[in-house]
Amino acid sequence: METWQQKYNLAGPASQTLGGSLEGLLPSADNPDQSPLRAAVLRRTRLILELGATTGMRLIEMATTRNKNIKRETVDGQSVWLISILGKGDKPREAVLYDDIKLLLDQHHRDMERAGTHLNAGARGRLRTLNNPEAEAPSPALAAAFQSPLPLPSVGAEGGLQLDDGLRPLVGSLHAGVKPRRLNALGMLERSTQESALSDVQGSLDPNAIYQSLKRFLTACADRADQVGAGIDTESLRRASTHWLRHFFANNAVEDGVEAKALMGALGHSSLNTTSVYLRSERKELVREIGKMRRR
After folding, report:
1. CATH for 21
2. Domain limits for position 93
3. In what order do the strands lie in the sheet with 78-87?
4. Do 12 and 4 form a contact (C-beta atoms < 8 A)?
5. Distances (CA, A) of 97 to 7, 82, 105
6. Whole-number pLDDT of residue 171
7. What's the pTM?
8. pLDDT average, residue stretch 257-284
9. Is the pLDDT at 126 greater than 80, yes or no?
């Protein structure tokens, strides 16, 4: 967070008020960004961090969950935002979306519109889903609009490609026309030959692009930690990825006393045995600490 704030001070609104909420970091008409695109990218990075650390979402879930999956509900007398997530094995679950993260999400959507990446006519009806993560196959309903032999209508033109607010992605593209980098079979980065693979028709960002965006930021964090002598394991930080955020969420939940059954639901695990992996750290600590006691 220190690294993120240091970078955002130079790109975001000139006057920022924290006040325990992300709202004080967002731009306004009276307090615009100093460097709009750079600030927007940093806000997207913060959104990825917050979603991973507070919901335990997987990478592919961040790329395929949509606005329509977010609802305001009253639960046990408390009004909260809930996200319906479709995970591995088409297993549905719900996660809580904190109010300030919802504000950051809404700002990210405004950033996409300003960058002109909220619609992608070049995707020709392709919509990213859990079972179509690369958005290679067109959505039947959307593809029908692109069957005409006439040239594609310009985005936003009368009768042209229109924004479906329900299909807005949680994490979207902010750079038009950029080719995503992928890992090849040898684990080396290579550029995709499909320029339109970056986003689907509603601007959903390619999962590999989300992954690389976060990796670049975590590397910057490790570099800064080395520079200031923070005394942390920076090599582990350089290896961290989006899945590390999921472990971060689970371990913090255990530490804060979240019951195993509730955590199993939050993580989308099919078995409590899978969730119990996160309980072992407490068990190790128990054995280690009790081992210090003398037999009486």
Report:
1. 1.10.443
2. 2-140+161-234
3. 70-75, 78-87, 91-97
4. no
5. 25, 6, 10
6. 95
7. 0.77
8. 57
9. yes
